[in-house]
């Protein structure tokens, strides 16, 4: 049957299709929009495929928008459906399940297919394009299956990223390239000659001027044979020589096509009712295969659609697409490369240092900037790319290069594009702060989507937001805002003067005396620096840490005994049940961290309850190591790859009792199905085939953040070592109340890895954690040996021998 | 306001550790008694916001922070230092090793 939708139908669920939907919805809140995706998932960020080839993360994480976005924005999303015919006269199209959709306007965003050269052996097993998540998974599992070598045909941007992903799995890889220089569309010979050695440093071999004649079979791919007769043995062949615009559907309805569907400056095809956007479109002779132009095109398409819908008002010049200056960033960890525009001009300024692998170039024609290449040192890239896009006049290009390296994002014009993945300009970031009320980089990123693609622009986003929110970038995070003292300064003072308590620090530095808010932060700092051999002063602690229970809204407390790894026994359960009855506990609740919570307990009852429970404190009230959630793993699960319960209990016992800058929730999953949700924990381990993935910085609270992978190791003992080193690194370096998921982005994942995974630095961290741990003890033992008199009691009303005195107070203030 | 203020013996000096507070019932009224660096102070026990137990709050030289939602009050006057209503303040006094509290007449001081 024909759906009565008469709005806009977008065919193709790639970045382009999604971008059109977003740009259109922004301009026209009520137009019905339907997005038809041929692939089996909602639109995802293809640009980041190379990341998951490296990390092995689930491709689900690439989703451009969550499912709710489509419902919230009234975009009907049809997934895994193919358009089989289109009747543009009637405005109806048919889907492969014989449903029909009506449309007023149609946008073709069918993207492209990987170009596969018609050479013998191209269809053999072991030969793959690198285009979608399935390719990614196949390539990754081949690279980890112990083959001797992989070959990548094509030394362009995508080919190099594929090679990096393969090398990251420990598989030898050779890139074979037809020409004598890599990324020839973007780079000149000088930059290319420095890029090859940089790749060699990442265990990626490059062979130039290799024209592949055939893929050696016969049963499956065993290597490449080149036109000069030489051969390269390889059991995995990835083909990345370019794209072919997907125009089949467009041709079937008679749209004029060349390489791609030909569009005018309003993104209209030869049929005015039909537009085309993205890699399937050809504008002024150019098919753009990069992400930034797609966003420009989508915005223009949205303007065309809305101005026409609104009554065909005359084309507004700003609503025209005049082409994009291509720009690209190579997403290969360890190599910084940004380029834009042309790789040469009639005046070129080049700064090159082969020893450090730095190459910076600005190309000029007719006095205007037309291109830049920045390798090894990309400082000032936003400003230079913006200058290329604007074709800015320049007198002294060498000086301009030097100036750019000193300029920060704050010096950029509002029109400079900061996030290429989502096409966000600096002005939009500032508007999110000034008009949108956003106060933090995180909020701005959520609103504008800047920094949510490949993430390479996040430092720039943070700097711009900081400047826009009032120079926060200049103001350090003070531990004590009253006295403007930072954690680092105070820690140094504590070390230098061998201070042992909060009152020592208060006496020496004045910290914590005025508003008192920072006293718990100071208490943690003193304990951490002194490795728990400090002098404990309970008055500096929050009430939870004075009575070792979590205060509730009515002033009662909750009691959570420790259950290592979420494993308990009938005897423990019986004791918990008995306690709940004996003390008339109002609620017994299973927590999210796989423990039992006794809620509504009065402070006075705490010691007796702990005594009756006979279990150690779960620290559910403290900024400390909380639970380690586990699944049953190999102990019982049919799918288990690792002993998650065993590792979880080991972690919890090794870390138990340690206080931390903020709470630390952990999890261990016995297989990538991840039933223990370890990928959204502060510290998480996931058993994978052949080892353990160790992650940190996950969140599943107000914000959801997938934990970063620190590393993948082969043994459980190594996983424990890495996770432990990370915990101590966090304990020593995070600001108070800074969760791991804020800490890691602040410090930088590379820095974290460097220290945590370093053999000596990691061992030193573990040793310091061990020393700190020795000085801890179960705080619930204070049930028999309270720290203070009346620690858990109200004061008793005084009795007879001290009668109330009646009369004016001596020196009262009222 | 009623006329006579009454002074009550509350506790001995070492019943409350330095920098902490405790709740005590005097004359049927719940009082939070504090031993701060600046002296002994007494406020009504419940935070005017949501009834949080002020005696469980963090104390600095002259203020206490409610443990539930971080409202801050001047220990000497009960005046709010953040937002909302203040709380009644009572006079604390050290006589030797003993602490006395003179209850204010009003339930609560205006903000």
Structure description:
Helices cover 31% and strands 21% of the residues of chain A. Chain A is an alpha/beta fold and 814 residues long. Chain A folds into 5 domains: 187 residues, FAD/NAD(P)-binding domain; 115 residues, FAD/NAD(P)-binding domain; 64 residues, BFD-like [2Fe-2S]-binding domain (Arc Repressor Mutant, subunit A); 81 residues, Sulfite Reductase Hemoprotein,Domain 2 (Sulfite Reductase Hemoprotein, domain 2); 163 residues, Sulfite Reductase Hemoprotein, domain 1 (2-Layer Sandwich), CATH 3.30.413. A 5-stranded parallel β-sheet of chain A has the order 4-3-2-8-20. The longest helix of chain A is centred in the middle third of the chain and has 19 residues. Chain A starts with a strand and ends in an 8-residue tail after the last strand. In chain B, β5 and β6 form a beta hairpin. Chain B has a 6-stranded antiparallel β-sheet, with no helix packed on it. Chain B has a 3-stranded antiparallel β-sheet with strand order 5-6-7, with no helix packed on it. The model of chain B has no long low-confidence stretch (mean pLDDT 87). Chain B is built from no helices and 9 strands. Helices cover 0% and strands 42% of the residues of chain B. With 111 residues, chain B is mainly β. Chain B has one domain: Rieske [2Fe-2S] iron-sulphur domain (Rieske Iron-sulfur Protein). The radius of gyration of chain B is 13 Å and the shape is globular. Chains A and B meet through β42 of A and β1, β2, β5, β6 and β8 of B. β42 of chain A pairs antiparallel with β1 of chain B, so a sheet runs across the interface.
Task: State the secondary-structure class of chain A.
Answer: alpha/beta
Overall form of chain B: globular
Low-confidence segments of chain A, given as residue ranges, are 1-5, 310-315, 800-814
Spatial gap, N to C terminus of chain A: 83 Å
């Amino acid at each position: 049957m024909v759906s009565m939708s008469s709005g806009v139908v977008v065919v193709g669920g790639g970045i382009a299709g999604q971008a059109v939907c977003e740009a259109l919805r922004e301009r026209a809140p009520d137009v019905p929009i339907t997005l038809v995706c041929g692939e089996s998932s909602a639109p995802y960020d293809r640009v980041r495929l190379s990341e998951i080839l490296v990390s092995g993360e689930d491709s689900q994480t690439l989703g451009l928008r969550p499912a709710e976005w489509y419902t919230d924005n009234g975009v009907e999303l049809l997934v895994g459906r193919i358009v089989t015919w289109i009747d543009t006269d009637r405005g109806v199209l048919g889907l492969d399940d014989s449903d029909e959709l009506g449309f007023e306007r149609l946008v073709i965003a069918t993207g492209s297919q990987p170009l596969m050269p018609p050479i013998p052996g191209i269809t053999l097993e072991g030969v793959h394009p690198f285009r979608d998540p399935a390719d990614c998974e196949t390539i990754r599992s081949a690279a980890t299956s112990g083959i001797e070598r992989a070959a990548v045909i094509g030394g362009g941007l995508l080919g190099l990223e594929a090679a990096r992903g393969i090398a990251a799995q420990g598989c030898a890889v050779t890139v074979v390239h037809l020409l004598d220089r890599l990324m020839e569309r973007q780079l000149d010979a000088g930059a290319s000659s420095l890029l090859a050695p940089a790749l060699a440093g990442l265990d990626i071999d490059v062979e130039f001027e290799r024209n592949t004649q055939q893929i050696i079979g016969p049963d499956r791919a065993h290597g490449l044979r080149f036109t000069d007769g030489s051969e390269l043995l390889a059991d995995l062949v990835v083909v990345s020589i370019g794209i072919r615009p997907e125009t089949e559907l467009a041709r079937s309805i008679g749209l004029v096509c060349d390489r791609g569907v030909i569009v005018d400056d309003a993104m209209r095809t030869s049929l005015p009712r039909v537009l085309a956007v993205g890699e399937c479109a050809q504008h002024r002779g150019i098919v753009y295969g990069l992400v930034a132009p797609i966003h420009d095109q989508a915005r223009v398409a949205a303007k065309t659609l809305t101005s026409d819908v609104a009554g065909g008002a005359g084309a507004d010049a700003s609503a025209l697409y005049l082409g994009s200056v291509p720009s690209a960033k190579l997403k290969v960890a360890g190599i910084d490369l940004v380029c834009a525009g042309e790789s040469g001009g009639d005046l070129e300024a080049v700064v090159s240092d082969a020893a450090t692998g730095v190459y910076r170039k600005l190309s000029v024609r007719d006095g205007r900037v037309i291109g830049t290449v920045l390798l090894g040192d990309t400082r000032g890239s936003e400003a230079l790319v913006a200058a290329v896009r604007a074709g800015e006049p320049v007198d002294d290009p060498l000086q301009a290069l030097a100036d750019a390296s000193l300029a920060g994002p704050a010096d950029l014009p509002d029109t400079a594009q900061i996030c290429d993945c989502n096409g966000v300009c600096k002005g939009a970031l500032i508007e999110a702060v000034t008009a949108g009320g956003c106060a933090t980089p995180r909020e701005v990123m959520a609103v504008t989507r800047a920094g949510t693609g490949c993430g390479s622009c996040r430092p720039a986003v943070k700097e711009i937001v900081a400047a826009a929110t009032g120079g926060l970038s200049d103001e350090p995070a003070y531990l004590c805002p009253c006295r403007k003292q930072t954690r680092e300064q105070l820690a140094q003072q504590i070390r230098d003067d061998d201070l042992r308590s909060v009152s020592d620090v208060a006496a020496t530095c004045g910290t914590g005396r005025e508003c008192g808010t920072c006293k718990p932060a100071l208490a943690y700092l003193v304990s951490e620096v002194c490795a728990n051999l400090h002098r404990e002063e309970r008055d500096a602690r929050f009430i939870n840490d004075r009575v070792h229970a979590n205060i509730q809204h009515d002033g009662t407390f909750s009691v959570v005994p420790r259950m290592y790894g979420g494993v308990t026994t009938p005897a423990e359960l019986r004791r918990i049940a008995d306690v709940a009855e004996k003390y008339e506990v109002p609620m017994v609740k299973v927590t999210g961290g796989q423990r039992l919570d006794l809620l509504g307990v009065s402070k006075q009852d705490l010691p007796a309850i702990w005594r009756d429970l006979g279990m150690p404190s779960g620290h559910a009230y403290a900024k400390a190591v909380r639970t380690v959630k586990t699944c049953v793993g190999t102990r019982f699960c049919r799918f288990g790859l690792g002993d998650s319960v065993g590792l979880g209990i080991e972690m919890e016992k090794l870390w138990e009792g340690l206080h931390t800058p903020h709470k630390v929730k952990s999890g261990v999953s016995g297989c990538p199905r991840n039933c223990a949700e370890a990928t959204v924990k502060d510290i998480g381990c996931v058993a994978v085939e052949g080892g353990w993935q160790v992650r940190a910085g996950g969140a599943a609270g107000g914000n959801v953040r997938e934990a970063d992978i620190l590393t993948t190791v082969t043994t459980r003992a190594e996983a424990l070592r890495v996770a432990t080193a990370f915990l101590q690194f966090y304990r020593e370096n995070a600001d108070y109340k800074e969760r791991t998921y804020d800490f890691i982005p602040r410090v930088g994942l590379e820095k974290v890895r460097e220290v945590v995974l370093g053999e000596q630095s990691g061992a030193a961290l573990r040793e310091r954690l061990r020393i700190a741990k020795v000085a801890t003890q179960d705080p619930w033992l204070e049930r028999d040996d309270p720290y203070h008199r009346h620690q858990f009691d109200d004061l008793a009303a005084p009795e007879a021998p001290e009668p109330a005195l009646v009369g004016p107070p001596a020196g009262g203030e009222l | 306001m009623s006329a006579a203020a009454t002074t009550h013996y509350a506790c001995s000096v070492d019943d409350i550790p330095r920098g902490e507070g405790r709740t005590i019932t005097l004359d049927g009224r719940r009082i939070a008694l504090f031993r701060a660096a600046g002296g002994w102070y007494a406020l009504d026990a419940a935070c005017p916001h949501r009834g949080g137990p002020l005696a469980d709050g963090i104390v600095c030289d002259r203020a206490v922070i409610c443990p539930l939602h971080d409202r801050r009050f001047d220990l000497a006057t009960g005046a709010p230092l953040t937002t909302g209503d203040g709380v009644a303040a009572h006079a604390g006094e050290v006589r030797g090793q003993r602490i006395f509290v003179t209850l204010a007449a009003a339930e609560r001081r205006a903000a």
